[in-house]
Every structure is written in structure tokens, then in C-alpha cells.
Design a protein that fits this description.
Layout (H helix, E strand, L loop, with lengths): L7 E4 L8 H10 L4 E5 L11 H9 L3 E6 L10 H7 L8 H17 L4 E4 L11 H19 L3 E5 L5 H11 L4 E5 L1 H6 L5 H8 L3 E6 L1 E3 L9 E3 L8 H10 L6 E3 L7 H15 L1
Parallel strand pairs: 1-2, 1-10, 2-3, 3-4, 4-5, 5-6, 6-7, 7-10
Antiparallel strand pairs: 8-9
Helix pairs in contact: 1-2, 4-5, 6-8, 8-9
Length: about 280
């Protein structure tokens, strides 16, 4: 098992960098040596270029993975993201496939082994025409990454663990895996993250470290909170990882709050103590 200090990283967009220099400085400030890097514009970040990757590596920072965000996504409400999330929108499909191609090529060129994304809300009913359409688009995106020998990871949360397992079985693509985010299971109200992790662990290739509290109003978002202050049972969560022999990366993601650097550093310390 690699040392825990070698496995913890941070999502670049969580640090809200204003430049490559600022990203390097903030990664150093939180005391980590690994990042998941936004490969296109995401959450206010402009997205990585070859120079960003070079600057990180020159500073001794490993780019553990990338991510790509689909264009046209609207996170205003659960209803808007259900309609616009991932690869769902017909009018943005060509643009999103082009984003996938650019992201896969950038990852391959710079030896980034895996890239995660939000696929979109998968319909519960496999007979729904939208199900087959989304499955076929995801398969095309997965083929794009497989051609570059880069793994494509689904980020959890927009469906139940059972639903994701069934969909991945149906997709039947050797080039895909799971980026497990426990907070998303709570934010989207899609089940208990510890039980979901136990079910999905054989497919998990990266873990996001993020916390949240569940909404008390059905149809509304839960609330993201600093790690250790929400509803994720971190001792149980870490227990499942350890018992299952998970040796992959643990990437801290913080998408709310105004004290991102402090919150990321606190999350790293909390996780290190538990592991």
C-alpha cells in the first residue's frame, strides 16, 4: 500500500487559481503533491494547457488525473442539472464530443492516466429512449479515451449505486471505471455513501474526499460542508476502503465556502489521521 501522503491530492478547481503560478502556490500551501486537473473550463477555472502541466511538474506536483466538464450544464437547481447535465443535451453533443477528444489527447500527450466526468442523469427505466441515447453517447466518449489509452471515470451521485452498477454492466466497456464521491450521494439524495462505496468498490479507481449534509426539502440540493462536519461517516468510509484493499488516490474536492485553502488543508489532516 503506498504511503497515505503519496495518495492525497486536491482538485485544481477547488483552489480557484487565478494563474498557473497561483495554482502551484496554493498546492504547496495546502502541503500536497498531487492534483486532479481541470482539462477544460470548469467552475470558473479556465482549464489546463500544456504549460500548466509543465509548471506543476517542475514544482514537483504530480498530475494524478484530469477531468472534463460538459458545456451547457446548469447547476442552478436539481431540476436544471437533471435536464442539462453531462452529455444529455442534443444541441451540445457535438461540442461535448469535441471537448472529450481534446481532453483525451491532452491527457495522453502528458501521461495523465485517467480523466473523470459527470455523464449526466441516467434514466431509471432502460426502456426510456433517453437511456439508450445517453448510453450510446457515453460509449462514444469512452471509445475516444480508450483510443488514447486513458481511463474514463464516472463521477458518482446523480444515480443510486445500484443504478450505476446496472448501467455500467449494460455499457460493458473495458475503458471505464468509477470516481467515487461520497458527498454527491448526499447532495443528490441518492443513498448512503458508505453502503454505495461497498457496492461500487471493485470498480472504483479514484475517490473524491468531500462532505455534505442532506436536504430536508425533497427536490432541493443538500449542502456541501468542510470534511468532518457533514454526514459522511468517515471512519466507516475509510474502513471500507482499507478492508477492500483500495490503494488508489484520494483527491480532496471543495466547491463551496470562501476558505478553500484552509478547508483543503483541514480535510487532508482529517483524512491522514483516519488512514
Amino acid at each position: 500500500m503506498p504511503p497515505i501522503s503519496d495518495r492525497i491530492g486536491v482538485c485544481s478547481w477547488s483552489l480557484r487559481p487565478s494563474s498557473d503560478d497561483d495554482l502551484v502556490a496554493k498546492v504547496r500551501q495546502v502541503g500536497l503533491g498531487k492534483v486532479q486537473l481541470a482539462l477544460n473550463a470548469h467552475r470558473g477555472e479556465s482549464g489546463a494547457q500544456a504549460e500548466t502541466i509543465r509548471r506543476l511538474r517542475d514544482a514537483g506536483v504530480t498530475v494524478a488525473s484530469g477531468m472534463f466538464g460538459a458545456t451547457g450544464e446548469d447547476y442552478s437547481t436539481l431540476q436544471t442539472i437533471q435536464r442539462t447535465g453531462g452529455l444529455a443535451l442534443d444541441e451540445n453533443w457535438d461540442a461535448n464530443l469535441a471537448i472529450a477528444r481534446r481532453s483525451a489527447a491532452l491527457a495522453a500527450e502528458h501521461g495523465i492516466p485517467r480523466v473523470s466526468f459527470h455523464a449526466g442523469f441516467i434514466p431509471h427505466d432502460a426502456a426510456d429512449p433517453a437511456y439508450a441515447k445517453l448510453r450510446d453517447r457515453i460509449r462514444q466518449a469512452a471509445d475516444v479515451f480508450a483510443e488514447q489509452d486513458v481511463r474514463l471515470l464516472f463521477e458518482t451521485g446523480q444515480e443510486t449505486a445500484d443504478g450505476l452498477v446496472a448501467f455500467l454492466d449494460d455499457l460493458d466497456h473495458a475503458g471505464v471505471g468509477v470516481n467515487f464521491d461520497p458527498a454527491n450521494m448526499i447532495l443528490y439524495d441518492k443513498g448512503d455513501p458508505v453502503e454505495a462505496l461497498r457496492l461500487l468498490l471493485p470498480r472504483v479507481e479514484q475517490v473524491h474526499i468531500k462532505d455534505a449534509v442532506r436536504t430536508k426539502t425533497p427536490g432541493e440540493w443538500g449542502t456541501e460542508v468542510p470534511v468532518g462536519t457533514g454526514e459522511v461517516d468517515w471512519p466507516a468510509f475509510v474502513g471500507v476502503l482499507n478492508d477492500g484493499g483500495y490503494a488508489g488516490d484520494l483527491i480532496i474536492e471543495r466547491e463551496a465556502g470562501e476558505n478553500r485553502v484552509e478547508d483543503v488543508a483541514t480535510a487532508a489532516a482529517h483524512l491522514t489521521a483516519l488512514m
